[in-house]
Fold each of these.
Amino acid sequence: MKITILGAGNIGSTLGKKWLEAGHPVAFGVRDMHSPKVQRLRSEIGEGAKIGSIESALALGEAVLFSVPWSAVPQIAAAHAEALDGKILIDATNNFASPEINNLASLKRSAPVGKIYRAFNSLGWEVFAEARIGGSQVDHFYCGADGPARLQLEELIRQVGLRPIWVGGLERVELVDNLGALWVELAIRRGLGRRLAFKLLGA
């Protein structure tokens, strides 16, 4: 699968490197080609992935990960609506200071035929970099419509090293968002550290 990653921060670069290792063509779309983040990413991946404008990256991808700042998504989605519609769109952005933590509404408006998912928003990038803690595989909870696109997303989650746990369609997004808020509370505010994750156990 051809993957577009919007953003060159810790989340996007970590996931992009994992998917490159799994054999996917990856294109990074960035707003400032000269930023320190972009230069660091370029030095880490070499010629392994394309790094260019948002427009050029979107032209290549079948799945699009939004890992830019939360506030940038509505403008990007509106400006590139035609390029986004019909693709697998993954919202990994958060704004825990807002009543609307995710960007699903913006993505739905701009890409009504897009296959939209909420994932990679509830754990720190350090967990994505190494998805086993204390010998246990980390579980990753996500939501979005059932169907072939969901199975493709699950494979991308597995290739990061995580076990995918589907909690339902986008109407269940509060469950996923609340896990992100819980992670921030425990890892950051309570000082338990960023190598913190969740595990589903059952008989």
Note: Residues 3-189 form a domain with the Rossmann fold fold (CATH 3.40.50.720).
Amino acid sequence: MKKVTMYSTPICTHCNEAKKFLEDYGDVELEVFDVAADAEKRKEAIEKSDQMGVPVFEIGEEIVVGFNKTEINRLLNLEK
């Protein structure tokens, strides 16, 4: 199973779209952190991405900022 860590906020439209996109694949283990409610995870996301925007994805050793389907598909080798 492929593991993805996602930093997001509940009101972020792109975050919610990304969650649905990843949940549609049965072999992706998605761990989601709400950076609006968790200051430590917010700091962690900023340190990893050098940005304050969400969503931020950690896939293996790679960081993806924003809901970039092409990059996420490439890193996870997903096919629909």
Note: The radius of gyration is 12 Å.
Amino acid sequence: MFLGVAILPLYVRFLGAEAYGLVGLYATLAVICSLFDAGISASLGRELARANAGDAPGRQIAELVRTAEVLYVAIGLVLGALIAAAAPLIVTKWLNLKTLSADDAIRAVRLMGIYFVFQWSMGIYAAGLSGLQKQVELNIVNSIGSTFRAVGAVVVLWKISPTAVAFYCWQVVATALYTVAIREVLWRDRGINRNDAAFKWTVASQVRGFAGGITLLSMLSVMVSQLDKVVLTRLVSLESFGYYSFATSVAGAVTFFGQSILTATYPAMIEAFSRRDEARLTYLFHRAAQLVSLTIFAPAAVLCAFAPIVLRLWARDPATVANASTLVSACLAGAALNGVAVIPYSLSLAAGRVRPAMMAAASGALIYAAVLAFLAPRFGVLSGAVGSAFVNLAGLLVYARWAVKPLLPGHARRWLVTDLLVPLSTAGAVASLARAAVSPSASQHGQAAGLFLASFVTLVCTALATPAARHEVASRMQALRSRSTRLF
């Protein structure tokens, strides 16, 4: 994650803001195509977790994986071919090009189609490993594959050709190797009897209800998450949209801190719900919610308060600082709220309930449409960040009422206040005070030192305000004291 964020300024520097807008375009296309996931990846992860809870035989697990793989990869091939075929229409009818040639943009979009096939296929294998609670193996492959892809892209842009076509050529090669690796890790798992793997329509039909709900939810979620992109690409230049894509990428990076907690917790939630273990489900929910709040709100508050300083020290590009600082701060509000909503979302999916998430997405679509209609003509890309904050705030209230309250009676208020509001207010207050203490006229070394100190103090104060983090620190300290006593 750190590597992915660190190289963003290099992408912008080598490609230019307009060509980098094509990276944002790919993200939009990928999310739109996620409509056709048909709930397969979510269903596979949930069914594998339930199979583990019920000690299912290796043959049944192999049939689950093979059926999901065949369906998912076939869908990815069709979607990738459609993207490549529609490249001329996408470039001429959708984008507002200034300096980038239409021919280069068309070639880049066609390469996006090939890249998409491999990137899409990785999703089903990652879902399988997560459902089997093989997070360590998944993280090893992801770390190596992401590093190879990111560093290689920088080398290609630096030494070979600083163009979008060269960038996506490398993405195709690197992601193909990445996909092969993660597929092998899944199929070599001891719990899967590979020799008995077979495609079975009956396996697919058993989960069609849950998969259908996930599909409808995906449609609503895509409508919410991509509404700003679709509107803004028509209203603003590709250069402005490039800065907006950059800002949303930086803001979205803070959610990666909580992703590892979610990855480890979600299959365990499914297992606890399948075993009717309400005490463990409650424990997992609050612990995960508090730790996700800590790992998201603390860095988000610091980055929001210090956005100009961070970009000045990191990007070292005056144009990026001038055009993206305000956007980054504004986008962080929506990204942080969206990041902490994944825990109640996962709770509802663990129980097989899709309706709360659908209600959150539907209300979000209406709110986003209203905000963009009113603000986009006046404030341009900034309206997308403002709308995102309103949408995700409404989503939290929906989850409290229709997900947490019925599944964990009496715990909705505790989630909103103890798990969310206390860490948020603590992180925001400490980061704001720290920013006020750093002089705008300080040297770059002084600003860097102030940023480091503010990050440390904000993290410590937020941890002390979070019960799960306090308990974790106390138990670790007690363990250290016990070891010291035994040694001496």
Note: The longest helix spans residues 102-131.
